[in-house]
Amino acid sequence: MVNLSAFITFVLLASFTPGPNNIMGLTLAGRMGFGHFMRTYMVGMFLGCLLLMIISAYLCLLLFNLIPKIEPYMRWGGFAYIMYLAWIIYRDKPSGEKRPLLRPDSILAGAVMQFLNVKGILYIVTSFSTFIIPSYNDTFTLGLFAVVLTITSCLATTTWAGMGVALQRVFTAHPKATNLIMALLLVYCACTLVV
Fold first, then answer.
1. Which of 5, 7, 15, 115 is 20 to 30 A removed from 103 (C-alpha atoms)?
2. Does a structural domain hold residue 53?
3. Do the beta carbons of residue 182 and residue 85 sit within 8 Å?
4. Helix (H, G, I), strand (E, B), or coil: what is residue 2?
5. How far apart are CA 57 and CA 157, in angstroms?
6. Is 5 domain-assigned?
7. How far apart are CA 80 and CA 74, in angstroms?
8. CB 93: neighbour CB atoms within 10 A?
9. Are the C-beta atoms of 10 and 126 separated by less than 8 Å?
10. By the 8 A CB rule, do 148 and 8 touch?
């Protein structure tokens, strides 16, 4: 049987601590509004996270064996994408100017981030390989855990997005400083992947 208190503690700490999704939630909701964030990035995050959870749940043993081989590539891919997001946030081009190839406030960006988010991938693999798979291995239960973990991750990012909305006046009054701080937080997240 899973150690429920250890598992819940791990899930809450891993979900609610700063990471790429939470920083993006804070930034995008503060800049573009909570509703826009929920209709774009959050939809993509939910879909990408759920797909990754389901894949990981059913292929956890395979992924666990492959992680040492593919982890460097995942880290550098995640680093590059998060640095790209940091650059886009730092630049913050007005809406009339040219948009980036992959807008950070899109459904696609939210989904892609899940597959490049090493913190998220390690969270998923750790959840399933350490807490869930040793106690449960039937299809329904693994699917249920995938949905619960996805919802928990989305609730955490929604919480950060709410903070972004609450701080919107600060963001509006000091856009360059805010963009610099958010970009530097993403650079920190990216650097922790490769250092």
1. 15
2. yes
3. no
4. coil
5. 22
6. no
7. 10
8. 10
9. yes
10. no
- Asked if the structure places residue 4 within a domain, the reply is no
Predicted pLDDT at 94: 44
Q: Which domain holds residue 127?
A: 10-194
The distance in angstroms from the start CA to the end CA of the chain is: 36
Residue 2 inside a domain? The answer is no
Please provide the size of the chain in residues. Answer: 195
Cα 178 off chain centre by: 20
Tens of pLDDT along the chain (195 residues)? 777 888 888 888 888 877 888 888 888 888 888 999 999 999 999 999 999 999 988 877 566 556 667 767 767 876 777 787 778 777 765 444 445 545 677 888 888 888 888 888 888 888 887 788 778 878 899 899 999 999 999 999 999 899 888 887 787 788 788 788 878 877 887 787 677
Question: Are the CB atoms for 4 and 132 separated by under 8 Å?
Answer: no
- The domain total for the chain is 1
Provide the CB-side half-sphere exposure for 106 (13 A, CA): 10
3-state SS of 21-70 is HHHHHHHHHHHHCHHHHHHCHHHHHHHHHHHHHHHHHHCHHHHHHHHHHH
The whole-number pLDDT of residue 152 equals 95
Provide the token pair at 44.
Answer: 């993509």
Closest CA to 2 of 137, 140, 139: 137
- The Cα–Cα gap between 143 and 141 comes to 5
